């Protein structure tokens, strides 16, 4: 019985800022952001996009009508929920026209939510091999203007279709996990901006990676050489570099290929920034879309981390997959974004913090198929701009 990722889609909003511009505006040496953090650009999410519209935009080009009828579960991993009660998946179900005979719900555990959803999807397909599940990781990372976390903001969505036809990655159900109640990053209910003990969060992340990775090797009698690539939750590229350094020396000739693949896996993250639940999966997309050296049968390790904190290490086997269509689609989304000045970004960021019972978003600069029109009498209104339908 095979189970894994049959299709994968990505979306980020049509705006970005350059990290050199941000560094200059914040009186920082640009190399701190480019080299010290590893970030080149950062997506800026306008008020016309939220996790629902971004997920719908990520999913729309990958799901066929047949898929929509076979989907039994819509699992939405996010820590940027749009309602304290109603799940983002309910809106997504109607925007995409997925069968009503589905379970639709949201999962929260910081950046780990999509991985919890993925593991649940794998279990479900193992028991119900003729059905399909979609797993979403969508978020907007906000730390605040002029904070040390600002350089690690970003946002976007990754959507994975999980089935018994794993055309991209096949999973075998093996994983190791570790959790502990710590205060490294959190977001109190009254604010849209995260609280973070940044340096402490780095230490907890590396500790959890080492625990779960080493336990995985021991439990399944493997060594690091059994992996062709290791991918990580990437809040910012330097975090992944630090984690990989903790188990693979950069100057060790036997680790050359794992470092080569790692650099392929952060190409997109270094231009999009942090998308919390979607970051590991954007890194996986970056690896399989950009690497010319991986081939079918290669084992790819994945480390998922959600502050608070939960870590999980698992692995998948790359399938015989033509990556050209995926690479073209993701390159187009990232390359076609419009660059903002820092003052334009600051204005857009502040607009994104405003919320009220009645709002109307400016849609003029956003030609994405799905947008958030605003709120009417406390109800969110989405728009399918291609079909001219409001939801
Ligand atoms: N050229 C090159 N590198 C430079 C530099 C320069 N001019 N100036 C500083 N650096 C390096 C530092 O040496 C440091 O590298 P290191 O981490 O390898 O030691 C890096 O840039 C960052 O500098 P630092 O002083 O630690 O930055 P900071 O105190 O402003 O905070 C974070 C950095 C990541 C802690 C902060 O952005 C943050 O809190 N981010 C959000 C938290 C997060 O994403 N946590 C991850 C777990 S999920």
From TrEMBL:
Transferase found in the keyword field: yes
Statement: the UniProt record of this protein carries the keyword Acyltransferase: yes
Domain of life: Bacteria
Keywords: Acyltransferase, Transferase
Catalytic activity, EC: 2.3.3.10
Protein name (record): Hydroxymethylglutaryl-CoA synthase
Organism: Lentilactobacillus terminaliae
């Amino acid at each position: 019985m095979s189970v894994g990722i049959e299709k994968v889609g990505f979306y980020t909003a049509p705006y970005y800022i350059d990290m050199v511009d941000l560094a200059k505006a914040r009186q920082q040496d640009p190399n701190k952001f480019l080299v010290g953090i590893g970030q080149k650009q950062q997506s800026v999410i306008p008020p016309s996009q939220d996790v629902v519209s971004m997920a719908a935009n990520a999913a729309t080009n990958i799901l066929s009508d047949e898929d929509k009828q076979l989907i039994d579960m819509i699992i939405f991993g996010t820590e940027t929920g749009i309602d304290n009660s109603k799940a983002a998946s309910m809106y997504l179900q109607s925007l995409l026209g997925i069968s009503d005979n589905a379970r639709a719900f949201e999962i929260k555990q910081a950046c780990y939510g999509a991985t919890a959803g993925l593991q649940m999807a794998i279990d479900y397909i193992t028991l119900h091999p003729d059905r399909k599940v979609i797993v979403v990781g969508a978020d907007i990372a906000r730390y605040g203007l002029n904070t040390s976390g600002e350089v690690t903001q970003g946002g976007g969505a990754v959507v994975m279709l999980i089935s018994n036809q794993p055309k991209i990655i096949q999973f075998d159900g093996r994983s190791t996990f570790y959790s502990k109640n710590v205060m490294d990053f959190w977001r109190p209910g009254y604010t849209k901006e995260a609280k973070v003990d940044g340096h402490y969060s780095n230490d907890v992340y590396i500790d959890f990676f080492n625990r779960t990775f080493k336990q995985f090797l021991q439990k399944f009698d493997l060594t690091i050489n059994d992996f062709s690539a290791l991918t990580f939750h990437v809040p910012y590229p330097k975090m992944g570099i630090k984690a990989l350094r903790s188990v693979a020396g950069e100057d060790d000739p036997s680790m050359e290929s794992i470092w080569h693949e790692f650099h392929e896996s952060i190409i997109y993250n270094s231009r999009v920034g942090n998308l919390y639940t979607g970051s590991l999966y954007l890194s996986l997309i970056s690896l399989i879309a950009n690497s010319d050296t991986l081939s079918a049968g290669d084992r790819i390790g994945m480390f998922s981390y959600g502050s608070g904190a939960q870590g999980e290490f698992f692995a998948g086997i790359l399938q015989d997959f033509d990556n050209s269509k995926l690479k073209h689609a993701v390159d187009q989304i990232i390359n076609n974004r419009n660059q903002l000045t820092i003052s334009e970004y600051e204005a857009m960021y502040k607009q994104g913090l405003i919320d009220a019972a009645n709002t109307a978003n400016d849609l003029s600069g956003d030609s994405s198929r799905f947008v958030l029109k605003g709120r009417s009498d406390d109800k969110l209104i989405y728009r399918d701009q291609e079909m001219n339908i409001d939801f």
